[in-house]
Amino acid sequence: MLININKGSVIFQGIDPVFALKDITVSVNRGEWINILGPSGSGKTTLLNVIGGIVRLGNGTISIDNKELTSITDEELQEYRRNKVGYIFQDYRLFDQFTVLENVMVPQWPYQNKRELEIAARNILKQLQMDRRLDSLPNELSGGEKQRTAIARAILHQPDIILCDEPTGNLDKDNRDNILQILRSLNEKGLTVLLVTHDLEVINPKGRTFIIRDGNLQEMNGK
Ligand SMILES: Nc1ncnc2c1ncn2[C@@H]1O[C@H](COP(=O)(O)OP(=O)(O)OP(=O)(O)O)[C@@H](O)[C@H]1O
Description:
With about 220 residues, the chain is of the alpha/beta class. It has six helices and ten strands, in the order βββαββαβαααβαβββ. The chain has a domain at about 5-95 and about 160-220: 3-Layer(aba) Sandwich (Rossmann fold). Strand 4 (about 60-65) and strand 5 (about 65-70) form a beta hairpin.
């Protein structure tokens, strides 16, 4: 089992506490594709952030690859994030002042041999048909090119899990299909994909589909 959450809850404290996740239990095997649907504010991003090691559970437990995240130190959690997880977002989150190649390398820059890192980044960008755009800045790219750069950055360190938060929300149909195709082929090679979306057309029917409502997670039957 790659991901195992047992009765996990997240409560954001404030004047009125928000129960963003309520007692959720879910297990995901390595190489699965998980679709996550739900209305705005239902807890989708919080769930990705719990799995990504960005938000800690208030109650319950989460283990990734049999490693318990609930009790590890902040440094260990940071290392987990850096090694095991890749993230892509609707708004790409590229650095405007860096080129495509630099954007892909920057998260791993402090931790890896620079030459090897650059070779790996060039190689992945080539696979994603971005090799002619290595020196472009993000504002010179189309939305699809920006997302392909973001995918290259998310998979450069060969994570176990890629967390996709509305990854095609800003894209037209052709670019959306292209990005989904890339994610599906990564999944077929063994990468575990969790995809949050509002868009029913983005759902991968070969995956399992969950709905979150008010922090409650439920698996849909009949795929
Ligand atoms: N850092 C935070 N502090 C306080 N409340 C938060 C925080 N992050 C999220 N929330 C609240 O937790 C609930 C779940 O938020 P979350 O972002 O997970 O929803 P979502 O399903 O991803 O929504 P959307 O589809 O609009 O992005 C919401 O009520 C939100 O306002």
